[in-house]
User: Which sequence fits this backbone?
């Protein structure tokens, strides 16, 4: 009795090479070899793309370091020669509306030759006349001229003795009147000694500090808010609750422009827990 044949047998591919003398060479698993070669090519192309991206990222960082070094050289040269320092962007972004002519007349009406103007440094408000003698008037003028789109509220820190970690959280709240969402990046710099930059730590840990400032805003923790958002950071391997005394919050927009820089006192905020 003949065995029934299976009409759906598995197909097999074999490469057959025939010489001029009629001798044949059979290469089995031809399909598997093609799949293996294609897989190797895909892995090679993917690896080349990844290494190209990493190289471009390192190249941008080197360019930023080179620019920072060049700026430092110009500042040192200017200080040695007694020249004025080269212009640079201020660390804090201030939106100062222009004064209308009536306001200017009112502000400087009391100024005479005996009350010279006080020349302000970068980031400070020019103080003249009665405002130089009235701190409250100067504070009101400063608060009126500064317009920030976001605010940092409800900053808290908690130290875990068992894990030797410091947890920090706060709310970033949109205070701008314009509708729509605000997005960008947040970086936290913990300072053991505010005067010694070697004792500063940046969070996230991927962030490097150049002259005490984050090197790349895009390494920070991303945010996107319409109203507010709770932001959390954790510092590992912290010996005690009072190890850090100041936390500086850097808030950038999506283009990497600094929106706000705010110092928080950790000596009053830190609390211990053993949970």
Assistant:
């Amino acid at each position: 009795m003949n065995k029934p044949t299976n009409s759906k047998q598995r197909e097999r591919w074999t490469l057959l090479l025939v010489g001029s003398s009629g001798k044949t060479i059979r290469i089995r698993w031809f399909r598997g070899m093609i799949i293996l070669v294609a897989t190797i090519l895909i892995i090679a192309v993917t690896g080349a793309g990844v290494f190209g991206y990493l190289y471009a990222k390192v190249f941008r960082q080197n360019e930023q370091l080179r620019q920072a070094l060049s700026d430092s050289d110009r500042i040192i040269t200017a200080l040695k020669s007694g020249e004025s320092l080269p212009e640079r962007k201020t660390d804090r972004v201030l939106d100062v509306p222009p004064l209308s002519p009536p306001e200017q007349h009112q502000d400087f009406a009391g100024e005479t030759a005996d009350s010279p103007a006080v020349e302000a440094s970068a980031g400070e408000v020019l103080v003249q006349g009665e405002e130089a003698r009235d701190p409250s008037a100067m504070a009101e003028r400063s608060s009126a001229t500064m317009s920030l789109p976001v605010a940092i509220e409800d900053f808290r820190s908690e130290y875990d003795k068992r894990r030797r970690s410091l947890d920090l959280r706060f709310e970033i709240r949109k205070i701008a009147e314009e509708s729509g969402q605000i997005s960008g990046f947040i970086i936290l710099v913990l300072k053991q000694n505010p005067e010694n930059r070697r004792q500063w730590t940046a969070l996230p840990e991927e962030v490097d500090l150049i002259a005490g400032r984050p090197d790349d805003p895009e390494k920070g923790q991303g945010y996107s808010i319409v109203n507010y958002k709770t932001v959390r950071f954790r510092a590992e391997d912290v010996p005690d609750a009072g190890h850090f005394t100041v936390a500086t919050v850097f808030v950038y927009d999506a283009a990497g422009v600094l929106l706000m820089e705010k110092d928080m006192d950790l000596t009053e905020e830190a609390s211990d827990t053993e949970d």
User: Anything to note?
Assistant: The chain is about 25% helix and 30% strand. The longest helix spans residues 30-81.
